[in-house]
Structure prediction request, 174 residues.
Amino acid sequence: MTVNTSPTTCANHPGVETMLRCNRCEKPICVKCAVRSPVGYRCPECVRSQQKIFDTAVWSDYALGFVVAGILSGIASILIGLVGSIGFIGWFLVIAGAPTAGLAIAEGTRLVIKRHRSRSLFITIAVAVALGAFPSILLHLVSFNFFGLAFQGIYLAMAIPAVYTRLSGIQLFK
Ligand SMILES: [Zn+2]
Ligand SMILES: [Zn+2]
Prediction:
């Protein structure tokens, strides 16, 4: 590995100085481009080509992952609705609980998809998490429960990234 002490410019963003290099192709990358992978910082291109190699998902993973993530998310969204309805403290509990719910959904889904992985599988599961909250959202909508809707929004905004990050092991470095 090359040790470069003088800053160079990002391969994707000319004009952005950086000390970071992709640990696979040694290309200089800035913090916006760098993707934190289990093996270190990589450029988006290397991450993409690695993902193709590690696509191990089969069709049953999509079906089972979708159903399990959808059901778990449905349960989580009902719980979020209940917790949110207890009053002011509910806001804090919802905000604190939503990422945890996401992790629980990811772990539950992992029981059926094992350690299989592919980007499209993780996206399928993220969509299932969103759809799982749909009955709760519909219920709040027809009952004009706008706080309930807000809680579902918070839940999805926090749980979906948590599920995706947990399953993929890849976190966008910002
Ligand atoms: Zn690279
Ligand atoms: Zn860059």
